[in-house]
Amino acid sequence: MKHSTTRVRSTEPLNCIVAKASGGAGLGDRLFSLATAIAYAKSTGRSIWVDWRDRTYHTQSDNLFPYLFRLRNVSQLQHCPVSDSVVPQIWKGRLDQSVDAITALDLKQQGVTWTPPAPPKAILESSWKRCKFDFDSLSQPEEVVVISSSRSAAKLMSLINDQSSTHRWNSVHEFLLRTLSEELGFSEAVEQEVARFAACHFNDEPTIGMHIRYTNEAASVRSVPTISQYRRALGALLRKHPSAKVFLATDNQNVQKHFQTLLGSGSVCWHEKWLPTAGEPIHKNRDCPDGIQAARDAVVDIGILAQCNYQILTGHSSFSDIAVAFAKHKQQSYILPRASPLRRLTAILRKLAPS
């Protein structure tokens, strides 16, 4: 089923936000970008059109958002708006294009030809800056505001704090996660799959959800916990709840095999999905047979993690952060710290194969 991106010119003055997926970023980053757009919309009375068409899940021609989520309390446009009153200016006449397309056009005007994967960050930075909306005021005169990043969320939070007489946000992290938990829901298809999985695999015993991101990409840009750290955290919970069922959300086949051997197939489960060669990412992967399904599988994993009584999550992972935002059992999450630089280097050299 294709979701329409027809351009419609309104007979009434527009007052809306176009929320773009943030280039080639993953699910967590685009959700934080969307949270920024939602918070701005609620503070200014604007409607939103969410446009998640990009290369990350190979969905340039189809809007990924309706397959995964729904907005709860914000007015949502069903089509791309048409207006000449747009900010940032680079989006004027190009509201139906992706961040990648705008970036490529801007770079071409600078004499740089680009097709994904991305060129060095230093080359992209100036183009990203022109694409990004800066929150200097909550009174923006343009009809359409394009938001494609959460980079300026701290400025927005400060503006909202100054406007509110009853509540002040203490951190950008709390601000974005609370916005998601209150304003975003799963799509009907995702909710049905989460319910089906829980009915098949969970019973009256406690459940432990564990998110382990184990890719070469993750290790190259941040420290990741070791398998031993996950095992120790899991062991501590299992000593308290020996009959608990463990749900594993991971992007690595070797991790699945490791914990199945450790715990036995009757004690650990996971939602079946396409997985790449161990160490490779699921998103931005040319071998992925169905990008929309891969994205939906990721959101189903988040939904199942949210059902669990306890969560063992990866620190500095936006995926784990989102699982916390949707968690039904609050204050039951164990956030694992990053590994030391030496352990990180060892993990990279071993190509992230769990021991």
Which features does this protein show?
355 residues; alpha/beta; 13 strands; disordered C terminus
Structure, briefly:
The chain is an alpha/beta fold and 355 residues long. It contains 13 helices and 13 strands. The strands form four sheets. Strands 11-10-9-12-13 form a five-stranded parallel sheet, with helices on both faces. The protein has a four-stranded parallel sheet with strand order 3-2-7-6, covered by helices on one side.
Structural class from helices and strands?
alpha/beta
Helices and strands, in N-to-C order? EEHEHEEEHHEHHEHEHHEHEHEHEH
| Structure annotation, total helices | 13
Distance between the termini: 43 Å
User: What percentage of residues falls in helices of 4 or more residues?
Assistant: 40-55%
Rounded mean pLDDT score: 85
The global form is globular
Largest sheet: 5 strands, parallel
Strand order of the largest sheet: 11-10-9-12-13
Name the beta content range: 5-15%
The Cα radius of gyration reads 21 Å
Would you give an account of this structure?
With 355 residues, this protein is of the alpha/beta class. Helices cover 41% and strands 14% of the residues. It has a five-stranded parallel beta sheet, sandwiched between helices. α1 (27-44) crosses α12 and α7 packs across α11 (291-307). The longest helix is centred in the N-terminal third of the chain and has 18 residues, at 27-44.
Topology readout:
Blueprint: E1 7-8, E2 16-20, H1 27-44, E3 47-51, H2 65-68, E4 69-71, E5 80-81, E6 86-87, H3 99-109, H4 121-131, E7 144-147, H5 153-163, H6 172-183, E8 184-186, H7 188-201, E9 207-212, H8 216-221, H9 227-240, E10 245-250, H10 253-263, E11 268-269, H11 291-307, E12 310-314, H12 318-326, E13 333-336, H13 341-349
Parallel strand pairs: 1-5, 2-3, 2-7, 6-7, 9-10, 9-12, 10-11, 12-13
Antiparallel strand pairs: 4-8
Helix pairs in contact: 1-6, 1-12, 3-4, 6-12, 7-11, 11-12
